[in-house]
Design brief:
2 copies of one chain form a homodimer. Chain A is of the alpha/beta class. Chain A folds into 3 domains: about 45 residues, no CATH class; about 120 residues, Rossmann fold (3-Layer(aba) Sandwich), CATH 3.40.50.2300; about 140 residues, Rossmann fold. Helices cover about 45% and strands about 15% of the residues of chain A. Chain A has 12 helices and 12 strands. In chain A, the strands form 3 sheets. A 6-stranded parallel sheet of chain A has the order 2-1-3-4-5-11, with helices on both faces. A 4-stranded parallel sheet of chain A has the order 7-6-8-9, with helices on both faces. Chain A has a two-stranded antiparallel sheet with strand order 10-12. In chain A, helix 1 crosses helix 3, helix 5 runs parallel beside helix 12 and helix 10 crosses helix 11. The longest helix of chain A has 18 residues. The termini of chain A are far apart. At the A-B interface, helix 4, helix 5, strand 2, helix 6 and helix 11 of A face helix 4, helix 5, strand 2, helix 6 and helix 11 of B. Strand 2 of chain A pairs antiparallel with strand 2 of chain B, so a sheet runs across the interface. Chain A binds a DNA duplex through helix 2 and helix 4.
Chain lengths: ~325, ~325
DNA sequence: AATTATTATGATATTGATTTCATATCGTGA
DNA sequence: TCACGATATGAAATCAATATCATAATAATT
């Protein structure tokens, strides 16, 4: 059933029906006629047709590297909370860390499918930049910084610095590092730089033999810990770029009777749900993931409203959470 | 820029452009003209306009009770994998366990917004049923059973039964239970029934004093464990309806020097990532969440293709994973 | 060679809504 | 009483695409 059939059924004009759904001038008796007919027929206006004429889809495209990650789903929850409030729905694309899917979904969002885009990318290439430039809708980037766009990001360098410093302050002399791919500027590069700054500031040197790069999984953390500890290397503190990596690494330590924190202190980033129930509760850095989602969504809404060309970068701070894994007295 | 402006720019007819994007008959030289013009202009056809005429949105509505849950995000990952393959995108609605949002998103999906719907509901009311009946697109339900619809669900009763039985077989005589809201048929009621069947089969009785209902969170599990163990009650095995609840409960046991498994065995459901890195690795039941998403999506695709009125229920089986938390010898 | 199939074409109708426009009615202040 | 703004109305134009249709040009089959 379409609007004109429905209008006939209700005994009013097509315009009246449209006005009913769009808060135009409409006499009370017509409203009643329409409401009665709505109950009889269950008619609903077509969103696609509405979108053609009014150019509003009430859809926001959200591009994610994966779905089953605690940090990402917290961001998404924040986004969904704010946008849901304003009557927007999310068109979610899971790129599964696949570069091509990321590109093709940006293409997709150029087809008048969405009113705005929120991008949680990990890597930016030239192709990303050129596609983003072609976008005709507002774009907000969460988790990374890109000049010319509204961004919400975390102080990754600071978070890594503080956590490493916390361990070095307790007397550690041989720091080790398990990080992420440095192409990922935030979680990979910046957290590495924070680690290095703390090490250098403590008058120590960053030894590449004590540094590993892992994937974002527990099993990868386990594997890299094996490489770090199975040689004659003897790190006395270990900074991991994510809690998942840290949890995997600690599993290796446990299986090999390396005591935490007595033999090695361990620190992570992310404040994952499981941190406090690990066999040694894990010290970590809380990053405001949900807040990032909330603020990113608000930024998008305001950019969509003003159409302002001024872009700003909102960097959220962090909080150190100390638990037993770094509870050592010098 | 719209199709007719673009057609003029490319020097071909509007029909030719439409055929180019829809694999109709088209001569090679026109294809080339169009491709050249595409590069020059960056034209993209409007999806909304296309949807009005062709009644295909290439969008699947997915209704979830929350985003930041490991089990749910695994289901979603499975869904996204299969549907992405077929060129569908997900219109995600996070109901945040809010009954009204669930209803309103079903309403939303009646407005020709999506080609199909996947519903991960926990509770079914009459209003749910009547709205589902009004749906003009295919619907698949994941995680619960509802007559008249294609469903993919887990053997929740069996999973709970087997895990409880495992503990009782090791000599436990005083079983305890921390479950979920029984309005949630699958995770609440069925897992409770499985627990009860195992208890009765072992010749024991289900004592309500040893049963608690928790929310789906670690902190709620902690709280309910406190209530269970702080009285003079002395359970020697504890079945929890989810791993999150179990992890919270174990945290309480640890803080109160109640040994696992020596004093109490603990079993959960869900095979969460963190299970094996808990201070006592947790025995659990693996439910095929991702498979549920994959199979649900496939069901939806085939229902959309045939438009068949035959509905089937696919019940996925489970696998017991034994770890230290139940590793006790009688 | 005649007859079908297949490929190819572009004008026009159609989809289901909103927007515009010309016009009518009503209450209120000058 | 007149003029003006606010309220109200429905026909028709518009949005950006696809579907239909009538028709032409090849290719394949008898």
């Amino acid at each position: 059933m379409n609007i004109s059939e429905f209008a006939k059924e209700a005994g009013v004009s097509v315009s009246a029906v449209s006005r009913y759904f769009n808060n135009g001038y409409l006499a009370e008796d017509k409203k009643e006629k329409i409401e009665a007919a709505l109950k009889r027929t269950g008619y609903m206006p077509s969103y696609s047709a509405r979108a053609v004429r009014s150019k509003v889809t009430k859809l926001i495209g959200v591009i994610l590297p994966k779905l089953s990650s605690e940090s990402i789903s917290r961001v998404t929850e924040g986004i969904s909370e704010v946008l849901g409030e304003e009557g927007f729905e999310l068109l979610l694309v899971n790129t599964a860390n696949d570069y091509n899917r990321e590109i093709s979904s940006l293409e997709l969002f150029r087809q008048n499918r969405v009113d705005g885009v929120i991008l949680l990318a990990s890597v930016f290439t030239d192709l990303h930049r050129s596609l983003l430039a072609k976008m005709r809708v507002s774009v907000v980037i969460i988790g990374q910084q890109l000049k010319g766009y509204n961004c919400v990001c975390h102080n990754d360098e600071g978070a890594a610095y503080s956590m490493t410093k916390l361990m070095l302050n307790k007397g550690a002399k041989q720091p080790a590092f398990i990080g992420a791919n440095p192409d990922d500027k935030a979680a990979g590069l910046d957290r590495r730089l924070g680690f290095e700054r703390a090490v250098k500031e403590a008058g120590l040197t960053v030894d590449p033999k004590y540094c590993e790069i892992a994937k974002f999984s527990m099993s990868s953390g386990y594997e890299k810990a094996r490489r770090l500890f199975s040689n004659r290397l003897k790190p006395d503190c270990l900074f991991c770029a994510t809690d998942n990596i840290a949890a995997g690494a600690m599993q290796y330590l446990r299986e090999n009777n390396i005591r935490v924190p007595d033999d090695v202190m361990v620190g992570g980033v992310g404040d994952s749900r499981f941190d406090k129930v690990l066999y040694v509760p894990l010290s970590t850095v809380h990053l405001h993931y949900k807040t990032a989602g909330i603020e990113g969504a608000k930024m998008l809404l305001s950019e969509m409203k003003d159409g302002s060309e001024v872009h700003r970068i909102l960097q959220l701070e962090y909080e150190i959470i100390e638990r037993e894994s770094t509870d050592k007295h010098c």
